[in-house]
Write a structure and sequence with these properties.
204 residues, mainly beta, Porin, eight-stranded antiparallel β-barrel, 9 strands, 13% helix, 66% strand
């Protein structure tokens, strides 16, 4: 067999077998989250009229996850993501929201070589969103809203050893809601979240 044919077969082998899933794994990641929750509060309470002193559009976020393989290219993951607290304030009053989610998602990878590649994520998340009034809170109790939302994302990975992999990704959570209970009436405001994170995972 010629050197060129051997080289070609080696490339095909790497494309088909490189950086494959193998067994169960756990991971941790940290990064930045973005949300439109404070924009919805800005419109709802007309912050533009009263003046704005703070408006969080992004906050630190983190995730913990575990997965198990279905095949060399596919895995199922269960993850917990904390999106942090988002505050909006004026000189006279203020509000905040917190969000977290448990996600169940399918992960499919597209290897580039024997160590690295690209992956996609698709699934659903049980999201918990909490509203809290920061000041001028008469008649505004804390509320918690739980809702099933969709999650989708993409990422890249790089294996630094047979058991350890560096992973970066972006996930979008669509369909969240938080509730404001004002003078006995409930108002639900939509809020979506985007998280970009870098982490490490260990494969057993």
């Amino acid at each position: 067999m010629s050197k060129h044919k051997k080289f070609g077969l080696a490339l095909i082998f790497l494309a088909c077998h490189g950086a494959a899933f193998s067994g169960a794994y756990v991971g941790i990641a940290g990064g930045e989250g973005w949300s439109n929750a404070t924009s919805k509060l800005y419109d709802f309470y007309d912050y533009g009229h009263y003046g704005l002193t703070r408006k969080d559009n992004n906050r630190p976020a983190y995730a913990l996850y575990l997965g198990d393989t279905l095949s060399e290219r596919d895995a199922l993951e269960l993850s917990y993501t904390n999106f942090g607290q988002y505050k909006i304030t004026s000189p006279t009053f203020g509000d905040s929201t917190r969000a977290s989610a448990f996600s169940f998602r399918w992960v499919h990878q597209f290897p580039i070589n024997e160590k690295s590649g690209v992956d996609s994520h698709l699934g659903a998340a049980w999201m918990k969103e909490q509203y809290h009034c920061l000041s001028e809170c008469a008649g505004l109790p804390d509320t918690t809203t739980n809702r099933l939302v969709g999650v989708a994302g993409v990422g890249v990975y790089w294996g630094i050893s047979p058991a350890v992999r560096i992973r970066a990704g972006v996930d979008y959570y669509n369909g969240g809601r938080f509730t404001i209970r004002d003078q006995g009436a409930d108002y639900q405001l939509s809020a979506n979240y985007l998280v970009a994170a870098l982490g490490v995972e260990y494969h057993f």
